[in-house]
Amino acid sequence: MSRLLAILMFVAATAHADPLPSWQEGASKTAITGFVARISKEKTPDYLPPEARVAVFDVDEPLLYASSAELAFAVDEVKRLAPQRPEWTKTAPFSTVLAGQPVRSAADAQALIAATHDGSVDALTARVQHWLAEPANRSAAQGYAQVRELMAYLRTSGFRVWIVSSGDSGFVRPWAERAYGVPPEQVVASTLKARLALQGGSATIVRSPAFETVLTGAAKPVAVERVIGRRPVLAFGDSDTDLPLLQWVSAGRTRFVALLDRGDGAEQAQAAALNLGWLVVDAGRDWRQGAAATATATGQQQAASTQAEPSALVLHARDMLR
């Protein structure tokens, strides 16, 4: 076989390669690939220039339970820092965690995160990266293979992919980069209060143990517009708390996919989606099962994540399905 023929065969095979191999053939996969094909075709009504191709993924729970990963990190940090904070043994929720009891409320989770995510931004990033690299936290450091695959497909189609989260930016940024390859500058998240300070003769950003913003509900679309400066054309969410973001995205010249979790709010969001004319698709049917394994840097496969998969995908039927 000549070198030229080998190259031509490789190009042909690549051109026809399945961009979403861990997705089952069906309406949702066809809708996504059809949407990308339409907006990429120049001189047509659906064409979107590359600068308008913005996709946002919410990662409060659906993308391998980012909030739970953040809370697990916070709990480990409470245990690590406890010798320096003797008052924690008598103060809830720290005393509860140190006694081995689960965190039972969002308010307690926020208190633990605020108390363990303060200080130098650079130091926190290093701690998170170290924690994610530990073998015991492997599942927390990897995302859904199907979502990573979809993000990669969108990037090759000219999209800029952003992550939106109610989690704290100090954790979500290094986590998102490791789990999904999303760089820190493309993360919109909750933030702690911060100031510029001198430490060891160098200027650094230091955070206080109190939230400045918590992104949930209507705060998410406001933050996305403020940071990105563009209404996305593709958005993913997880529950009823993300409906304001999804409704805002769908109000523009847009088509979107929303990812729903099994947790609280999933049923309400699905009902709302049906009322708005969206197509609800079962992820158990549309994702190839067992595809959540993560490839290591050497190309070997790790064991599949034990986290539950999302229950449904919601597709905006009006624009995506034709």
From TrEMBL:
Residues 1-17 form the signal peptide. Gene3D superfamilies: HAD superfamily/HAD-like (3.40.50.1000). Keywords: Hydrolase, Magnesium, Metal-binding, Signal. It comes from the Bacteria. This is Haloacid dehalogenase. It comes from Jeongeupia chitinilytica.
